[in-house]
Design goal:
Number of strands: 18
Distance between the termini: 81 Å
Order of helices and strands: HEEHEEEEEEEEEEEEEEEEHHH
Shape: globular
Number of domains: 1
Strand content: 35-45%
Structural class: alpha/beta
Strand order of the largest sheet: 1-4-6-8-10-12-14-16-18
Largest sheet: 9 strands, mixed
Number of helices: 5
Helix content: 10-25%
Radius of gyration: 23 Å
Oligomer: single chain
Amino acid sequence: MSSPQTGASVSEAPPQVALPEVPVQTRSERFQSVSVADFPVVTGREPEWKLTPVAKLQPLIDGSLDGSSYAIDASNVDGFRYRFVPSQQVARGVAGLPEDRAAANAWESTEEVLVIDLTEALSQTVVLSRQEMGVAPRAAHSLIRVAANTHATLVVRSSGDALLAENVEFDLANDSRLHVVFVQDWNAGAIQYAHHLAHVGKGAVLTHISVSLGGDVVVVNPSVQLAGEGGEGHLFGAYFADATQHLEHRVYVHHQGPKTLSRVSYKGALHGAGARTVWIGDVLIGPAAVGTDSYEQNRNLVLSEGTRADSIPNLEIKTGDIEGAGHASATGRFNDEQLFYLQSRGIKELDARRLVVMGFLVDIISRINDTELVELLTERIRTKLSATEEAS
């Protein structure tokens, strides 16, 4: 008979097995915090990060950021006011809180908030330009407040060098209308990670247009709460990624109030080895959002080998009483029939390809209600398209 092993304990507890975390069941349950320490370290394997070049964003995710004010140029228009205010003196978070470590780092690091007030119907476009952000890691926070019954068009143009993480908040009071355009045309090598958050009141309408053309890594993630009855959110985007560029957009529309409406349409073109785009669209129709009308779509046009476009639409519906909801996604090459039709009319193949691409992207650009900016962006896309063709 064998003797029991010396030192063995018959009362020893079984090893503890860690239970798997319960996954987020709906988009609105995603964790939010303004503190970096509340978020786990980012490895790049997390579902929300696995499509993003985390290594390039690391200085913005975990590094020290300069959160002071920066140089901007802005229009001088009655009813428009902007100023930098110490972050302790500004009530932030009206439109939401950070949902990831990079946005939380920007929030926590910001020392001075750019506060923009639109207080009356504006007869001309307000243009705000920034082109001296620099190459050092920087944080920024903008709070854009639109007074009740105010109608305004705001254009934010970004160029030059940047290593920037920022949060942008929109607070639309009842029956206001804001048409806002963000143009990301940074220098080669620039990196931007932007989280846009909007709260749309009763009867208010937000038109948010993002145009991403320049930079190395550009991430713009708009989140819109349609909180008031009859509120509307129109979110459009155009992007053109060439070799080595990563352009990413993650859109979230939360229908909270009744009879709200949303339209989401993003279009992108890709050319050159290493060109990469990511689009994720989340629409949540809450239990109180009866009578909702929602539709989202993403279209990508692949112009060469070696590119990759990820496109993931998601739709959650928590009430059975809606007007309509749908989503669509497509990624493909040139339409051969369009190309054949143009060539049969005597148009050379290269010119025909340019016309197809221009028509594809200008469909979004033309929604901007500023003619001068539409012409400028159209020419910028044409120039970029020519440059990529010459490099082929």
